[in-house]
Amino acid sequence: MSNKGWLNLESAAGVIPDNQFFEGEDAFSKFGFKLSKTTRLYGFIGCTVIGFILSVIGVIFLILGGWVSFGLLYGMGTILSLIGTGFVIGFLQQLKLMFKPVRIVATLVFLVSIALIFVGGIVIGSGVLCIIFVIIQFLAFTWYTLSYIPYARTAVMGLVKRTAT
């Protein structure tokens, strides 16, 4: 196997950051596995790309009226993308950050909405409910993400107040 090519991150000296990311425990260290930073980056990219593809295929099924397929694919895509971020900072660190007091409500709404997408698509078979739960999931994830940016939530709330009046 050649060490050349655009996927060979080992040869890109200094490209993968030492301290900015990958600060948490190694992704599988609790189970006796040690993953390199490169492997963890590949895990992140792979999970994120596959998760995105599953979500897009799910949306295509939603448009075609396949509620069960949508619920399954979109939900799995979201979960897989979430798992991908665990490769970057470590799964335990990710859980600690997700359930900090500033994020706990957004995290719980996000996780419950993922479950409700499965319920709406697979159990109930309602496209309308699926779309509502996807919107709720998107809003919860956006609010969750804004909690990592200083003053972002305050800025968004100010913008919403100004447009509402």
From TrEMBL:
The membrane topology term of the UniProt record is: Multi-pass membrane protein
Q: Which GO terms describe its biological process?
A: protein transport; vesicle-mediated transport
Quote the protein name from its UniProt record.
Answer: Protein transport protein SFT2
Q: Which UniProt keywords apply?
A: Golgi apparatus, Membrane, Protein transport, Transmembrane, Transmembrane helix, Transport
Q: Where in the cell is it found?
A: Golgi apparatus membrane; Membrane
Q: What is its main location?
A: Golgi
Cite the Pfam families for this sequence: Got1 (PF04178)
Transmembrane residues, as ranges? 41-64, 70-92, 104-125, 131-152
Check the record and name the InterPro entries matching this protein.
Answer: Vesicle_transpt_Got1/SFT2, Vesicle_transpt_SFT2
The organism encoding this protein is: Sanghuangporus baumii (Phellinus baumii)
Name the PANTHER family for this protein. Answer: VESICLE TRANSPORT PROTEIN, VESICLE TRANSPORT PROTEIN-RELATED
Provide a GO CC annotation, any one. Golgi membrane
Q: Membrane: is it a keyword of this entry? A: yes
Q: What does this protein do?
A: Nonessential protein required for the fusion of transport vesicles derived from the endocytic pathway with the Golgi complex.
Does the keyword Transport feature in the UniProt annotation? yes
What is the similarity comment for this entry? Belongs to the SFT2 family.
